[in-house]
Amino acid sequence: MQTLKVVPDITLKQLNSKQQTELAQTLHAWRIQPNGTEGYRTAEVTLGGVDTTQLSSKTMEARAVPGLYFIGEVADVTGWLGGYNFQWAWSSAWACAQAL
Questions:
Q1: pLDDT at 84 (0 to 100)
Q2: Signal peptide location in the record (predicted)?
Q3: Which long-range contacts (CB under 8 A, 24 or more apart) does 45-54 make?
Q4: Residue 44's closest CA among 15, 7, 3, 85?
Q5: What is the pTM of this model?
Q6: CB of 52 within 8 A of CB of 76?
Q7: Inter-CA distances, 5 with 2, 52, 62, 93, Å
Q8: φ, ψ for residue 62 (rounded to 5)?
Q9: H/E/C letters for each residue in the chain?
């Protein structure tokens, strides 16, 4: 991987074509290597759950199993931190309850 050259503060439009290409290649090749984890104890976001394409968006009912409903964080929905997961839990429960 190339080392990024230090340049004075300039805007992207001030770079010539070759410099823009070099910058794009450097950014594209950039890899982040995590050096550890605190595990699920402090996890903020996890992925996975019931595939939402398999659920009715109006009722949260499983398309393949009538009468089976999934709400809240059991569904594969990821969002921003800050209470949005609570809103999703309440909203999906409301949608489900309206169908019953």
A1: 84
A2: none
A3: 45/78, 45/81, 47/76, 47/78, 48/76, 49/73, 49/74, 49/75, 49/76, 49/77, 50/74, 50/75, 50/76, 51/76, 52/76, 52/77
A4: 85
A5: 0.55
A6: yes
A7: 9, 45, 54, 53
A8: -65, 130
A9: CCCCCCCCCCCHHHCCHHHHHHHHHHHHHCCCCCCCCCCHHHCCCCCCCECHHHECCCCCEECCCCCCECCHHHECCCCCCCCHHHHHHHHHHHHHHHHC
Tokens representing residue 78 in the block: 């990821």
Residue 34 token pair: 């995590």
- Tell me the C-alpha distance between 47 and 54, whole Å: 16
Task: For tokens 């309850």, name the residue.
Answer: 97
